[in-house]
Every structure is written in structure tokens, then in C-alpha cells.
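Slide 14.
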Amino acid sequence: MIGISIVLIGIVFLFKTSLEDYIYTTCPLLHNTDATECPATRTLNQQAYLAYFLVSVIAIIGLILAIIKPEKIIVIKKVKDKKVEIDTKEFSKEEKNIIILLSKEKTMFQADLIEKTQMSKAKITRILDKLENKNIIERKRRGLTNIVVFKQ
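Slide 15: predicted structure.
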């Protein structure tokens, strides 16, 4: 809300200055008489002060909300998973190698996995897709790469 208030103050200020320029160039009383101020200027100033007041109220409300913000209570429950043996008979040699690597490391960047196994990026991606579908691993996107997490 504070950021919105700052933007609104800027908008009100720009609007007020452009209207003052417009009033100065178009007010007939300034050009035809000895008047030093156009009557529209007083109205413009009153409206600008009202707008500044409303924006400051919004800013104060934003500050109050930021200060009185309730603390969030985060409860983390860790559920112990039973270790499940993986039947490696159904996997290919490459898949077994990746499972063994990940079971030792637990987490690993996909790029490091490509480097350690000397397999192509496409082949690693296909193997990881298969392992992820069987709920053996999980991939988490981090920037331009993935982190591969062994779930067992």
C-alpha cells in the first residue's frame, strides 16, 4: 500500500502541475484584467490538498498493516517414510546406474548427472521421466537446470 501511495502522490503532483499550466495559459481573467490569480487555481489547490490527504491516509493504513502484521505460524511435520526396496530387475543398465548414483548422493543437479554418467542430455531426460513416473525420483526446477532428488 505504501508503494501505491507513492505512485498516487506522483500522479497527483503531475496532474496538478499540468492543470496549473493549462489554467495559466487559458484563464481569461489573467490576460484581460489586472488579476494575479485565476479563481480556478484556488479550486485546483483545494482538490490537490484533498488528494494528498487521501493518499497519506492510504500510506498510514499501509504502515499500520505492515507493523501489525500477524506472525505466521509454520508447522512442519516430518513423516518418516518406510524404506522400500527397489526391484532393479525391471530397469535397464543405464537406469540402474542413475539409481545407484542418486541413492548415494540423495540430491544432484541434472547437469552433474549428465557429466558423471557420460550420457546425452536427451537420454538422461527420458530416463529421469521414467523414474519420476515410478515415483523413485523427483525433479525440482532451479533456474535453468533441474535438481534431481532421490525419494527412497
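Speaker note: The longest strand covers residues 137-142.
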